[in-house]
Amino acid sequence: MKKKLLTLLFASMLIFAVPCTSFAAYGNTISLSAQGNRSDLIYIKRPKSHSASTSDKTYTISAVGASGTKVKVYKYVPSDGICKLIKSETTIGASGLYSTVVDLTSDSNTFVVCAESGSDSQLVKIQISKVKKSTIDKLKNVTVNVLNFIK
Q1: Pairwise pLDDT comparison (132 vs 14), residue with the higher score
Q2: Which of 118, 139, 122, 131 is nearest to 59 (CA)?
Q3: What does the alpha-carbon distance between residue 50 and residue 48 come to, in Å, rounded to a whole number?
Q4: Closest CA to 72 of 57, 83, 80, 58
Q5: Cα 144 off chain centre by
Q6: Distances from the Cα of 87 to the Cαs of 2, 64, 145, in angstroms?
Q7: In the structure, what pLDDT confidence band is assigned to residue 121 with cuts at 50, 70 and 90?
Q8: Alpha carbon distance 51, 68 (integer Å)
Q9: What is the DSSP string of the chain?
């Protein structure tokens, strides 16, 4: 009788444990050339073109995706030749919105946003360039006179 009860208990534990297993394919580091098997888990809203420039020390990356999608952010470290995890796993809630602030530690920053849902994954590479304030000030001071182009 005890043997049947233990077998039944073990079988029920397996039935409930299998759906809870995670298929996380990405750990604390990934290759910059890594690719997912889907392209529709998340949609990056900011930056719009997967690249941007700013003079700020930080940048907000935002995306939309299905509720329950897990998102991580990695930063490429050129000296190591790999991407390291900088934002741990966050699950997109009922609103479908995801947003995170990343530090811009160099002039050229490459990030990889990793979205996972079950056994599916999507990786999006984002390039953020940090420009000096003086460069932006110079660009703001440039004026274009239409008459100069007509003559």
Answers
A1: 132
A2: 131
A3: 6
A4: 83
A5: 39
A6: 48, 17, 46
A7: very high
A8: 26
A9: -HHHHHHHHHHHHHHHHGGG-------SEE-TT---S-S-SEEEEESTTSEEEESSSEEEEEEEE-TT-EEEEEEEETTTTEEEEEEEEEE--TT-EEEEEEE--SSEEEEEEEEEETTEEEEEEEEEEE--HHHHHHHHH----HHHHH-
pTM: 0.73
Predicted pLDDT of residue 91: 96
Q: Take residue 69 and report the two structure tokens written for it.
A: 């999608």
Please enumerate in sequence order all residues whose Cβ is within 8 A of that of 105, keeping only pairs 6 or more positions apart, or say none: none
State how beta strands 70-77 and 51-54 pair.
Answer: unpaired
Question: And the tokens for 67?
Answer: 């509720």
Average pLDDT along the chain = 84
Q: What is the mean pLDDT of residues 104-115?
A: 96
Encoding tokens for residue 33?
Answer: 């050339």
